[in-house]
Amino acid sequence: MTRSSRLSRFLRPRARRVDVLVAALLLLLGFGLAVQVRSTRSDGLLTNARQEDLVQILDELSNRSDRLRQEVATLTVTRSRLTSGSGADQAALAEAVRRTQLLGVIAGTVAATGPGITVLISDPHTQVSASVLLDALEELRNAGAEAVQIEGSRLDGGQVAVRVVAQTALVDTAAGIEVDGTPLVAPYRFVVIGDPSTLAGAMAIPGGVEDAVRQVRGTTDVARAERVRVGALRTVSAPRYARVD
């Protein structure tokens, strides 16, 4: 074997290792650029938001923090009552009744009333998708909605309301949307129990629900009320597989 061929064989694997190293560095660089672009895009809404919009977002975050602190205080008081020696049985019974009612509201098996808002979403061009309504529902939940129902028209012209629970699903159809298998046609109406100002503010966040509906040439009308009623009920069936552990 000549000296030149030995030199060629010696250099060939070193070249391959260098190529792999360069490719890895380019991959890391591309990943870093992608993360930076995504971060820049996600921060764009807050960067370009008006001062009053930023104040509104800050107020909503403060309200969420206050609600969490209030819940912690309530649970602390309840624990003290249940662990104290005097009146523990009565306190346990009252707590059981309270939790039964609370779980009934969450599961949608009992009607609920309280302060809240109604959100009417008109869709004259049939462009409001299920994802837009799902975003609205998530914003309302994040803003502290305690009970929600979605109303709409049936295909035959009648009105129907569907109670929203944890497992509620929204699906697009040719004529509108389906909420848990019930077809609805626009206009859609959310009836929501919670703090009216916080809920209304969640609908008006820049780049949020109202902007999304406006982009498809729809309209959103939010009305606050001292008392709304969420009366649509769900039937809870026994679980097929889950058992109490």
Describe it.
The longest helix is centred in the first third of the chain and has 46 residues, at 3-48. The protein is an alpha+beta fold and 245 residues long. It has 3 domains: 1-48; 51-107; 112-230, Alpha-Beta Plaits (2-Layer Sandwich). The protein is globular and about 60 Å long. Helices cover 52% and strands 22% of the residues.
- Mean pLDDT comes to 80
Instruction: State the order of secondary-structure elements, H for helix, E for strand.
Output: HHHEHEEEEEHHE
CA-based gyration radius: 27 Å
**CATH fold-level topology of the largest domain:** Alpha-Beta Plaits
- What is the top-level CATH class of the largest domain? Alpha Beta
What's the total helix number?
A: 6
Structural class call reads alpha+beta
Tell me what portion of residues adopts beta-strand conformation.
Answer: 15-25%
Distance between the termini: 76 Å
Summarize the structure.
This protein has helices at residues 3-48, 51-83, 88-107, 130-142, 196-203, 209-215, and strands at 112-122, 147-153, 159-164, 170-172, 177-179, 182-193, 219-230. The protein is α+β, with helices and mostly antiparallel strands. The chain folds into three domains: 1-48; 51-107; 112-230, Protein of unknown function DUF881 (Alpha-Beta Plaits, 2-Layer Sandwich), CATH 3.30.70.
